[in-house]
Structure formats: structure tokens, C-alpha cells
Amino acid sequence: MADLREVTEVLIVGAGPAGIGCAVALEACGVEVQLVDAKGVGASFEGWPRQMRLLTPSFHSNAFGGVDLNAVTPDTSPADFLHTQHADGREYGRYLRALVMHHGLKLDAPTRVTGLALGEDGLWVVETDRGTHRARFVIWAVGEFGRPDLGGIEGAALCRHNSGVGDWDEVAGEGERFVVIGGYESGIDAAVHLMERGREVQVLSRGEPWGVDDPDPSRSLSPHTRDRLKRALLEAPGQVRFYKNANITRVSKGESGYELFDDEGTRFASVTRPILCTGFVSALEQPMVRELWEWKDGQPVVSEGADESTLMPGLFYSGPSLQHRGMLFCFIYKFRSRFGVIAREIAERLGREWEGPLARWRERGFMMDDLSCCADCQCAVEAEASEHPEVMEYAERA
Ligand SMILES: Cc1cc2nc3c(=O)[nH]c(=O)nc-3n(C[C@H](O)[C@H](O)[C@H](O)COP(=O)(O)OP(=O)(O)OC[C@H]3O[C@@H](n4cnc5c(N)ncnc54)[C@H](O)[C@@H]3O)c2cc1C
Questions:
Q1: Which among 306, 283, 320 is positioned nearest to 368, based on CA atoms?
Q2: Which of 5, 8, 163, 391 could covalently link to 34 via disulfide, CB atoms 3.0 to 4.6 Å apart?
Q3: Ligand 1 centroid vs 315 CA: distance in angstroms?
């Protein structure tokens, strides 16, 4: 149990890319940091399906100023460390653990944070399953992987969320035909894995996410996923059917399998357990912290100056739920651009020198404080028309 008399300068909840990236930047400024994680370093990645890989590519271009897209410090490269372009979860977990060891970051044995409150003395009181911590600043970096979004579907518990898949070989062993609900990155990932195993797949989605052509990769399929889908369609044509505008609202179990109903009550049958690829819930929505942030139009608000709660000074957020000016920071290369900004703010308040120590963070795009550059990422050259898979209107299916 932590000693109540001890006060940590910064307590970081979550030892994934966001927590570790902030810890290294703070450590560079001589700030004392304590990391706590419920399951250990890189636990979310360890929980990925065995075959799942980062869709953002890694390449060790650091020496030419283009830092590896999956690096969480300005002078490391997962490509160089792991010798692979699209690391799987276990590999990426090894990269994170190497950083913790290299920097000698302080990390408790697995510790789950259960409560967070600002004490009257201005210190944060952090309740955990192993005792209480007190800290001057807290960075909330708990990620999203542990909180699947069930898409508001009644009976969702009958389905399998893709975050609960350990191995696609085992899932494929359950039948010949599968229904995937959701057609964005995770939905296409699931469909491709099943097609590669010779299974028939029907992808049902609200809207038509696989057809979106947006310059922001947070809003359209990544090139890696498009390549995988193209390959799977060439090698196994006819094995997948895409249905757009399918708003599935209820799932039930009948005698011969599962029944899916849309908002008009029409029925779609599946012999195998439907696979939900309906995303994840924001890290800021957990009941324990929800009230600690301001919410506008259903979105959490953090300061543009340093991703700090606008209600509770001293509480910062780092990770993929970050949004500014309508831009999503959901990839590592996006949210890492704020590590230097958060570290600078905390170092400054603690009276520490940050300019020299964080120079590398600024030079290499890890201290992005001009958010106007995010507002327009339109490519100067119009995108070429791309081929889309054959799609059926859900309501008009035979
Ligand atoms: C399926 C999926 C695929 C993705 N693919 C990519 C990709 O290819 N490229 C990319 O850039 N991004 C990708 N992302 C975005 C992804 O969110 C980030 O890559 C990354 O995992 C986020 O880092 P994080 O540190 O915020 O969260 P995480 O890596 O999830 O780390 C959070 C940590 O917090 C811990 N924790 C949670 N609750 C508590 C608690 N109460 N107390 C203590 N510890 C706690 C967890 O155990 C975990 O270790 C993907 C996300 C998902 C969900």
C-alpha cells in the first residue's frame, strides 16, 4: 500500500503509449512521475487478437526528421526496435516495456485506480485497489480498449465484440458464415480475417463507412486496410457482402441461431454468433471521471493550452479520445503531438526548466501547440477515384 505521507509530483493512470509518452517527456524535465496500470505495461496491446496488427506503418526515418508514426518518444522507432512494419499487439507491448526499462520509469505492481478526487489541500487523492496515492498532478491515460461500445444494441451481450476475440482461427472454427456489425476499421479487419479462412461474411453497417473518402485517416479506412480488403476480394471474390444503411437495434437468440432486427423490425438471420465491431467508449466517459470534465454537445472539453480539465485544474488527459476543433487525435502519431505540451505545462508550474529538455519534442512534432494546423489537412492534389467493394442497400436485400 502506498504511504499516505508521500506526495508524487505527477501520477499517470495507464501505462500504454499515452501514459508512457507523457512520462518520458516529464522525466526529461526532471519531474517525478509515478505510473500505475491495472494490468501492466502495454496491457491493451497484449489483449489484441493474436493476428491483429497496427494499421499505422512503422519505418525508421527518424534521422531525416520523420519520426516513426508509432513511436512515443522523439528518438525511438518501433520499426528499428522490432524489425517489422505493422507490429502485432505483443510486439508493440515489447517496445513499450523496453521504453519503461530504458528510462527507469517508476511503475507500481498492477494497480487499478478506483477513485479520483481533488482534496481540500489542492492535492489529488487517487484511490486504488492497493492503497491511496496523493499527487500534485494527474494524467488520465487509460485508453479505450477495455471499454467496448455495444452500439446501443438490445441483446448485444449475445454477440461477440471484436475486442473479445483472442484468435480468429478459433472464431472461424465456429461456422461457415458470419455476420459482422460495423464496417469501419475493426469491421473490415474482422471480415478480412474470416475471408482469409475461407468463411462467408456479411458486413452490416450504419451508413457506408468503407466508402468514405476523407483526407483524415481517422474518418476513412487506412491504406493498409484498403490493401488488405482488395487482396482478400481478389483471392476470395463473392465471399463477402456489404450492406449499407443497416441500423441494427436488437439481437435475440432463436432455435436455429441468432436474429438481428433493424429499426423497422425487419429480421436478418445468422447461424453463428454476430460479431460486433461497433467501437469503443471514450476514456473520459468512465463514471469515476465523467463529472471531472466539462461536456459540450456530448463531447468532453479539455483546454487547448494543455489538454487539462477546464473544471479541475491539475487533471490532464492524454490518449485517443482527445479532440480539438472537431479534429480527432485517435492515432498514436496524433495524440503524441501533445506529450510535449502537457509536460511543458506541468514542468512550468513546478518551476522546472523545460525549454532545453523538451527541444527534441518541439523539433520533432511532439509539442504541437498551434492547433490551427489541424483544421485543414486536405491534400493539395485531389484523391484518385478508388474502387469500392460491391455494396447492397440493406433495405433492398433479397
Ligand atoms: C482495436 C484498436 C486498434 C488500434 N489500432 C491503432 C493503430 O494501428 N495505430 C494507432 O496509432 N492507434 C491505434 N489505435 C488507437 C489506440 O487507442 C492507441 O493505439 C493506443 O492503444 C492508445 O493508447 P493509450 O495509452 O491511450 O491506451 P492503452 O494502450 O489502452 O493503455 C491504457 C492503459 O490503462 C490501463 N487502465 C485502464 N483503466 C485503468 C484503471 N482504472 N487503473 C489503472 N490502469 C488502468 C490499461 O490496463 C491499459 O494498459 C487502436 C485502438 C484500438 C482500440
A1: 306
A2: 8
A3: 19
Q: Is 138 in the pocket of ligand 1 (CB under 6 A)?
A: no
DSSP string for 196-209? HTT-EEEEE-SS-G
The predicted pLDDT at position 373 comes to 66
Q: How far apart are CA 10 and CA 271, in angstroms?
A: 51
* Tens-digit pLDDT profile for residues 296-342: 988 899 999 999 999 999 999 999 999 999 889 999 999 999 999 99
**Confidence band of 393 (pLDDT split at 50, 70, 90):** confident
In the reported structure, the alpha carbon of residue 353 is separated from the centroid of ligand 1 by a whole-number distance in angstroms of: 30
Per-residue buried b or exposed e for 193-220, using 16+ beta carbons within 10 Å of the residue's own CB: bbbbeebbbbbbbbeebbbeeeeebbeb
CB-based burial, 166-177: b 16+ in 10 Å, e otherwise: eebeebbeeeee
Spell out the domains of the chain, with CATH numbers in brackets: 7-146+281-367 (3.50.50.60), 156-279+381-396 (3.50.50.60)
Residue type, 299: Q
DSSP 273: P
